[in-house]
Amino acid sequence: MARSDVKAFTHNLGDSSVVGPARSRLRQLVIFANAAGLVEIKDGSGGSTILLQSFPTGLHHLNIPADGILAENGVYINNFTGSGNKLTLFLS
């Protein structure tokens, strides 16, 4: 079986904003939403927005095509709204 460098990181609403290693590729998001909201992910804490996604209540999978989105300075969750929502990010 081939080895993979993809790792999963869980983020609950209200958790610390930095997720994953310093340089990462965002491959997939899984959102469990108790309430509608949005997630904004930046390249580091002061960097540009690399993903802004709104979502309704329910379970959602967002697959990033090709090689994913590169965050040179690490994946930083700038904004995650709703109530009791959970986010799982798959990074490599």
H-E string: EEEEEEEEE
Which descriptor suits the 3D outline? globular
Kindly report how far apart the N and C termini lie.
18 Å
Beta-strand percent range:
over 45%
The description of the largest β-sheet is:
5 strands, antiparallel
Report the CATH C-level class.
Answer: Mainly Beta
Query: What is CATH's topology name?
Result: Jelly Rolls
CATH architecture, by name, is Sandwich
The overall number of domains is 1
By DSSP (H or I, 4+ residues per run), the number of helices equals 0
Number-wise, the strands total: 9
Radius of gyration: 13 Å
Give a quick precis of the structure.
The protein is mainly beta and 92 residues long. The protein has no helices and nine strands. The protein has a single domain, classed as Jelly Rolls (Sandwich).
Question: What's the arrangement of secondary structure elements?
Answer:
Layout: E1 7-12, E2 18-19, E3 24-33, E4 37-43, E5 49-55, E6 58-63, E7 69-71, E8 75-80, E9 86-91
Antiparallel strand pairs: 1-9, 2-8, 3-6, 3-7, 3-9, 4-5, 4-8
Please tell me about this protein's structure.
It is a single chain. This protein is an all-beta fold. The chain has one domain (7-91): Sandwich (Jelly Rolls), CATH 2.60.120. Helix content is 0%, strand content 58%. It contains no helices and nine strands. It has strands at 7-12, 18-19, 24-33, 37-43, 49-55, 58-63, 69-71, 75-80, 86-91. Strands 1, 3, 6, 7 and 9 form a five-stranded antiparallel β-sheet that branches. The protein has a four-stranded antiparallel β-sheet with strand order 2-8-4-5, with no helix packed on it. The radius of gyration is 13 Å and the shape is globular.
